[in-house]
Amino acid sequence: MEVANRYITIKTQVDGEPKESDFELKTSALSLSLDSGSNDMIVKNLYVSIDPYQINRMKSHSSSQKAIGFAAAITPGEAIDAYGVAKVVASANPEFEKDDLVVGLITWGDYSLLKGGNYMLRKFDPMGFPLSYQVGILGFSGLTAYGGFFKVCKPKKGEKVFVSAASGSVGNLVGQYAKLFGCYVVGCAGSKEKVALLKEKLGFDDAFNYKEESDLKSALKRYFPDGIDIYFDNVGAEMLEAAVANMNTFGRVAVCGVISEYTDAAKRAAPDMLDVVYKRITIQGFLAADHMNVFSDFISTTTDHLRTGKLYAIEDVSNGLESFPSAFIGLFRGHNTGKKIVKVADE
């Protein structure tokens, strides 16, 4: 038996802001018959994570492409791999059976053919939560927020925390974890609706619309008159400069992402290095993969908070394979609120 497998690819490298014409929907025949002993597997894709870092994989060159395997360059014409939830439809791997629910690296497509048994995939227990949670709050977005805040920022109760892109997939969780831990938290976002979400639903102490601020350094001075202890950076460029200018001695900066720089080669952060030296500020980049050793703690803590209603999963779901390009492009235009996900199919 074979099925028609539709998938999304890039036509060529994308070196500026992505646009619809950069992407192409292709269809190929996929046989559901697998050679026994091959360890190959075919899964039906259900939910797929949409992440800004993928733009760096689409570029003709990015330093990130050689740093770690999952950031490797995407070849034009081939299916784009991404983190997601799927259901096994055929398996020659004894560790997986038909109808198993799995999470890991799949593709922007209807189905994924996973070859050789060396794929990053695991079975999971939904634990009573929606399957989409495995892509966001209980997946790498959640681990990024948890590991970045607790292991990189090393917070102390009562410290003052600033989160940029605070309504995004990671930022909203950092703010919630920080509040639950006992910190004072201010976030910035790009619309009055997102600011209201941060303050009224997610419990941030304060929030502001960065688009309404002509001087970011002055704005942060206004919101942090006694200085910033922790800055969780999802943006880079001028926001990082402004945060460093307002940081306290021994402040910590966790650099999770620099989305403002991904599509604009002219934008680069230039924090005052005298501040970094004399305030003894720590600036550390990190990846979710660095914190797999706390994965069980992260899952336990997060599921407890979800069940007691102390933590909210904020999701922004697009439906259907055709929505992949617009969902991805929207990340760079501030369209999403919370974790951006494409629902490819029902279970």
Automatic annotation (TrEMBL):
InterPro entries: ADH-like_C, ADH_N_2, ER, GroES-like_sf, MDR_fam, NAD(P)-bd_dom_sf. GO terms for molecular function: oxidoreductase activity, acting on the CH-CH group of donors, NAD or NADP as acceptor. SMART domains: PKS_ER. Residues 19-342 form the Enoyl reductase (ER) domain. Gene3D superfamilies: Medium-chain alcohol dehydrogenases, catalytic domain (3.90.180.10), NAD(P)-binding Rossmann-like Domain (3.40.50.720). The keyword Oxidoreductase applies. This is Enoyl reductase (ER) domain-containing protein.
